[in-house]
Design brief:
elongated, mainly alpha, transmembrane helix, 55 residues, membrane
């Protein structure tokens, strides 16, 4: 479970780093897509960690 929590944290950090500058108009579309993918990974890891805790 610790792996999933760490993965969720790292994914959220990468997602913020890719999505936030795009919203201000100062980064490429590639960074935005990488941020969205990282956000998806972070959400998946967080849901998996939650399911492991609540079993």
């Amino acid at each position: 479970m610790d792996f999933h929590v760490a993965l969720a944290g790292i994914g959220l950090a990468v997602a913020v780093g890719g999505i936030e500058p795009f919203l201000r108009g100062s980064v490429s579309l590639t960074a935005f897509v990488a941020g969205v993918v990282a956000l998806a990974v972070a959400v998946f890891a967080a849901v998996r960690a939650y399911r492991l805790v609540t079993e």
